[in-house]
Amino acid sequence: MFGDLTGMMGKLKETQKKIEDTKKRLDSVLIDESSSDGLLKITITANRQIKSIDIDPALLEDNEQLEDYLVLTLNKAIGRATQVNETELASVAKEGMPNIPGMDMFK
Predict the structure, then answer these.
(1) Threshold 0.85, pTM exceeds
(2) Where would one find coiled-coil regions in this protein (predicted)?
(3) Which domains does the chain have, with CATH numbers?
(4) What are the pLDDT digits (tens) for 47-82?
């Protein structure tokens, strides 16, 4: 009985390490998003850290329009980054789940 428990604990620790490694790797996964007309471009990591914002000079003339562009484009970029992040982490977590009787619902 304790052998199984020790094995499960080892597998959980291994999975935790893989999750941490995946989180670090996601810092280097870049996602590019732009407004529909290309006047605003944003690069964000899969961990949702903004890396760059490129604003066309035409947008600098109208603060309200620039704010609208920023909100819409940032939200799209964050949504895509979140999807990549959650998919990657879920994959690692699912792969490392030990076989615990009655816990099949998580697989």
Answers:
(1) no
(2) 5-32
(3) 2-100 (3.30.1310.10)
(4) 999 999 999 999 999 999 999 999 999 999 999 999
